[in-house]
Amino acid sequence: MAELTTIARPYAKAAFLFAQENNALDQWEQMLGLAAAVANDATMRAYLDQPELDDAVKAQAFAQVCGEDLNEGVRNFIAQLADNKRLALLPTILQLFHELLAEQKRMTDVELVSAFDLDDAAVEKLVAALKKRLGQDVNVSTSVDQGLIGGVIIRAGDTVIDGSVRGRLNRLAEQLNS
């Protein structure tokens, strides 16, 4: 995974800089999302994995599947990826592009995992605390994991805050075993 990220990073940065110069960051993110979904499709992957196909044919087929939803810039980007045999990197490129966009907008994606559904007031309180701690706006997604027993796990990029009962019990068990 780390190797894919290393290979995809220059492509994501190039796409980001091009989109930024053309004031089209949100549109590029949307178009890259479509391209990444097409690249993830099993039928498309099988087609693109055919060694006898020319890179230009692969790029053209890819663009045809996406239809009119891609502008000329993204079509050229996909052609460049095809020439370098990197079409499979599109999902990783999208992820890195999204991270660059979030960084530019000073926005962090945060995942709240709790043992039960959180009410709006609790989510707002957590969002306010996270904004203060992270120093930027947060885009929150919530999910439920009943195995946590209670509490919440917060994931924001590389930061994980485990305030769950299960996490606390695991830490206590580790201390007792040491």
Automatic annotation (TrEMBL):
Topology relative to the membrane: Peripheral membrane protein
Matching SUPFAM superfamilies: N-terminal domain of the delta subunit of the F1F0-ATP synthase (SSF47928)
Keyword set includes Cell membrane: yes
One of the record's GO molecular function terms: proton-transporting ATP synthase activity, rotational mechanism
InterPro entries given in the database record: ATP_synth_OSCP/delta_N_sf, ATPase_OSCP/dsu
A GO CC term assigned to this protein in UniProt: plasma membrane
Keywords carried by this UniProt record: ATP synthesis, Cell membrane, CF(1), Hydrogen ion transport, Ion transport, Membrane, Transport
Location in the cell: Cell membrane; Membrane
Main location: membrane
Stated family: Belongs to the ATPase delta chain family.
Role summary: F(1)F(0) ATP synthase produces ATP from ADP in the presence of a proton or sodium gradient. F-type ATPases consist of two structural domains, F(1) containing the extramembraneous catalytic core and F(0) containing the membrane proton channel, linked together by a central stalk and a peripheral stalk. During catalysis, ATP synthesis in the catalytic domain of F(1) is coupled via a rotary mechanism of the central stalk subunits to proton translocation.
Annotated protein name in UniProt: ATP synthase subunit delta
Organism of this sequence: Alcanivorax hongdengensis A-11-3
Organism lineage string: Bacteria, Pseudomonadati, Pseudomonadota, Gammaproteobacteria, Oceanospirillales
